[in-house]
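ugh ok fine here u go
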Amino acid sequence: MPKIDDLNLAKELIRFPTITPNDSGIMRFLEKKLKKLGFKTKILEFKDKQHKPVKNLYARLGNSSPNFCYAGHLDVVPPGNLKDWTINPFKPSIKNGHLIGRGANDMKSSVASFVSAVSTFLIDKKKFNGSVSLLITGDEEGIAVNGTKKVVDYLKKRKEKIDFCLVGEPTNPEKLGEMIKIGRRGSITGYLNIYGIQGHVAYPHRANNPSDCLVKILNKLKAVKFDNGTKDFQPTNLEITRININNNADNVIPGEAFASFNIRFNNKHTSSSLKKRINKIINTLVRRNKCKYDIKYMVSGESFLTKINNVTYMIRDIIKKNTKITPKLSTTGGTSDARFIRKISPCIEFGLVGKTMHKVDEAVSLKDLKKLTKIYKEILDNYFK
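structure:
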């Protein structure tokens, strides 16, 4: 059984320029590595009319329960201005005890850590009761419609059971060991168009300015206090993300105004209940201002909270043992693919320190990389005792 080095594998993965949804051959590369460890693998490509095809990988070693799954992504965000980088973002480099490259932090190094941990686990424990699986997507940083969401649907149809899932996202704010994610807030975006009557600014009585109505709606939405948070979640918040009035003439009252907003909501709400509340506010003000409107919503995910069980406590204790920090069980931050996986399995998240994710000279501490591999290995040892 080959032992896979975490640092070498992380470097190899970073060399693939996998800006969402480009695969660049990375899934086939990882598939070969996992096959050498004995995994049965399946590359799943999904596509639709609106989006480019995305390759995903599901790999499983063993046929029996329990099935412990590691989930992650190999796609990355664009590097931005290459002149701002001290290296080529897809030619990994080691400087001052850190591995630098796009995806080093989010989250190719975490994937490398888990694969390395599995290889060592299999050398130490050639036979174990249960299965180890990996769910790896190439569509986490993008629109996320042809990635984990569809892999989960595929697994449900096959009646593939996952008993516990660990997502390797960079969960720690400053130091390795600070935080385990046990849930996430939901996310819904509204795209609002207000229609008035175009006219001359000198004759406002002959027009109906939709921007006036839009401003009143946005002020009303921002004034809503949705809740005070819960013991597990921070308060729900609404943020205005775009305002656009497509008018290049200073003497013309526009006929149309647009705004978008995003709500991050806790488990006191659902996307449906928020839509009803928002629509009621908009309807009232649109009628009052004698305008018309249309609104479209995009729901990225509902809020969820994973019930804490013995596996969660076991993982927390292993992290504490290796980092000397007791991790906080948290629901803070943005969305992740855990929002899809939680539909078929209990799901928590733990990975590297996220300080440099999506930044220029994205990096991971080599000490943290080795420590994370050790943590993942001990999790497997204890899960399959």
